[in-house]
Amino acid sequence: MTKKFGVIGYPIGHSKSPVLHEAGFSEMEIEASFEPIEVHPDELSDWVTNVFPDYTGVAVTIPHKETMMKLVDKLAPAAEKIGAVNTLYWDNEAIVGTNTDCLGALKALQTECPELSGKKVLILGAGGASRAVIFALKNAESQIFLWNRTAQRATDLAEEFEIETIENLKAVSGKNFDVIINTTSVGLKEWKSPVPEDFFDAKNIVFDIVYDPLETKFLADAEAAGAITITGDKMLVYQALEQFKLWHGIELEPEIMEQAFLVSPNE
Ligand code: ATR
Engineered SS bond to 119: which of 2, 26, 178, 211, CB 3.0-4.6 Å? Predict the structure, then answer.
């Protein structure tokens, strides 16, 4: 029987999940479908109870990641700590909500920086994506510094995760850090960076979670300084690979999904 998978959001048009997972199905000859599922927030609870039982697994995206926490039978520790669910799967009769963004971020970073323990990492932004990145790097025992445009959000998050804050970006530079990560939306469909052009140092490893465009101003400035860069498709691909492992028990080669990402146009 064809197994059913999908990605649920509102609206859902732009999700890359179907393309990534379908590439895995055809590589591994898995008989399955992966559809975009648009569900209004008011109908989410009904959908989980009455429609999800037809599915083997579902990816969860904006704006349902936080609400889904209350609708599942069990929460994995990562989802609990991050405060968001991005993946649903079954454990016998129970619906489990987990979050693969943290492992996605970790594995993306490890493509260029395998040893993150003790590394000084500057994280820009304090939204949902930032929580997943902080959680991953806390587990990896990095020394984390957090900056956010709205300082209070950074202070609150720093208290929760027991990390340090940077209040004024002008008072620091790339020289003070090993790794620098942009989790803000600055640079998404625009040629802007959250840090000054001359911020970076040649010894930096610089990661942008924005993937549209793939080459952001943030990464272009880092590259101009001689830094090593990691593009945003890596996090997307590695979090999808973790979902693939959960749903099918298969560790897919990253290249399969990376290639699928690169040939599917951004909107
Ligand atoms: P996500 O869940 O995708 O992380 P979010 O919760 O809306 O999205 O968070 C967006 C992040 O981008 C926040 O850190 C936001 O900063 P504020 O907390 O100050 O709003 C950051 N951000 C968005 N636009 C920005 C801008 N022009 N300059 C700096 N930071 C910006």
Answer: 178
Report the C-alpha dihedral over residues 10, 12, 16, 18, rounded to 10 degrees. Answer: 110
pLDDT number for residue 14: 80
**Percentage of residues in the chain having pLDDT higher than 70:** 100
Residue of 101, 155, 185, 235 with the most ligand 1 atoms within 8 Å of its CB, for mutation: 185
Across 34-61, average pLDDT: 98
Instruction: Determine the atom of ligand 1 nearest the C-alpha atom of 124.
Output: 14
At residue 46, φ and ψ (nearest 5 deg) are: -60, -40
| pLDDT at 266 (0 to 100) | 72
Q: What distance lies between CA 260 and its chain's CA centroid?
A: 17
